[in-house]
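Action item from last week, closing it out:
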Amino acid sequence: MVPRYSRPEMTAIWSPQSKFRIWFEIEANACDALAELGVIPKEAAKTIWEKGGAAT
């Protein structure tokens, strides 16, 4: 984003930290769905949330 044309609120939404947090939430929710279908172990989905949540 061009700093002179953006407000602080908009800059925060598009910051790398915010972008990666949203990406993590999408992938972690996909893992929850895969765990419900039996594709991956439920414990693996839980671990992803625990470890990823600490990093975001």
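Closing note: DSSP finds three helices and no strands in the chain.
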